């Protein structure tokens, strides 16, 4: 029996050491991941080129405000020349890069239209300005100012659906779609594209309900809570403000070693108690239910 106790003790020690080593390896991996993340800061060249992009986008916005079509087209051409020269790795995802490129392409179409509409030109220029700013100011982008507008849109939808006011539901759905459309390229640059796709799906669902019949009011009300939750996530209102990065985990090795020590001590104590119980003897029983203690 003493040999069996020793085997259990060795097994406990082996288990504790294995778990400790696994946790240490995990912690080291997390620390290396944190180092890689912190190392993925924009280079001086990236910063210089994105700042130039931001200045050109601001120029485009001002030209659009003035109704200066030729000046706007000139700024758009400059943007088209600058974007391919920027290395977007570490700045945004492929979806974000494509969203910026698409915004410039769409703006060219607006300003080149036979019947140019100044309000459409302003919207197109605003999209590009916000997208460029999301690249140059990743922690304090201008598009965060749309938080209040989107919250008001959701409140309008909720009240209209509660009051069963179809006209107001349609108005709220149209405003929501418009405001999301303006910041969509910026969202794809700054946030997880999967979350942006979820936002698109919710906005489309609400729009279709507003145009339909039947249980439209109940369906809109059912869509409001997940819509609010998703907006909170996109605007980082759940755990931290948009102006502060998430805190990195500090000293992961410390808690890993501590946890491993606790496991080792617990198993060691259990083995010690087992060895002391009944003088180190373990009661056994025969199949015929007769029992005897080994001496």
TrEMBL record:
<feature type="transmembrane region" description="Helical">
    <location>
        <begin position="253"/>
        <end position="272"/>
    </location>
</feature>
<feature type="signal peptide">
    <location>
        <begin position="1"/>
        <end position="25"/>
    </location>
</feature>
<protein>
    <recommendedName>
        <fullName>Sporulation protein</fullName>
    </recommendedName>
</protein>
<keyword id="KW-0732">Signal</keyword>
<keyword id="KW-0812">Transmembrane</keyword>
<keyword id="KW-0472">Membrane</keyword>
<dbReference type="Pfam" id="PF09577">
    <property type="entry name" value="Spore_YpjB"/>
</dbReference>
<dbReference type="InterPro" id="IPR014231">
    <property type="entry name" value="Spore_YpjB"/>
</dbReference>
<keyword id="KW-1133">Transmembrane helix</keyword>
């Amino acid at each position: 029996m003493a040999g069996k106790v020793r085997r259990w003790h060795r097994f406990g020690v082996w288990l504790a050491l294995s778990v400790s080593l696994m946790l240490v390896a995990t912690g080291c991996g997390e620390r290396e991941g944190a180092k890689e993340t912190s190392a993925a800061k924009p280079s001086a060249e990236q910063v210089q080129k994105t700042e130039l992009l931001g200045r050109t986008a601001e120029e485009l916005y001002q030209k659009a405000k003035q109704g200066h079509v030729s000046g706007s087209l000139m700024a758009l051409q400059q943007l088209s020349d600058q974007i391919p020269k920027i290395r977007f790795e570490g700045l945004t995802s492929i979806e974000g890069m494509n969203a910026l490129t698409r915004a410039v392409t769409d703006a060219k179409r607006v300003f080149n239209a036979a019947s140019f509409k100044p309000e459409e030109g302003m919207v197109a220029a605003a999209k590009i300005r916000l997208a460029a700013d999301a690249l140059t100011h990743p922690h304090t982008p201008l598009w965060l100012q749309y938080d209040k507008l989107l919250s008001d849109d959701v409140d309008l939808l909720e009240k209209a659906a509660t009051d069963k006011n179809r006209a107001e539901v349609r108005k709220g759905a149209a405003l929501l779609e418009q405001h999301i459309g303006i910041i969509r390229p910026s969202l794809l640059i700054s946030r997880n594209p999967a979350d942006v796709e979820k936002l698109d799906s919710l906005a489309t669902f609400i729009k279709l309900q507003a145009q339909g019949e039947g249980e439209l009011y109940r369906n809109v009300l059912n869509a409001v809570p997940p819509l609010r939750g998703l907006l909170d996530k996109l605007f980082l209102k759940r755990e931290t403000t948009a102006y502060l990065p998430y805190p990195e985990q500090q000293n992961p090795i410390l808690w890993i070693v501590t946890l491993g020590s606790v496991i080792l001590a617990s198993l060691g104590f259990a083995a010690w108690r087992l060895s002391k119980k009944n003088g180190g003897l373990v009661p056994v029983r025969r199949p015929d239910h007769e029992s005897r203690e080994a001496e």
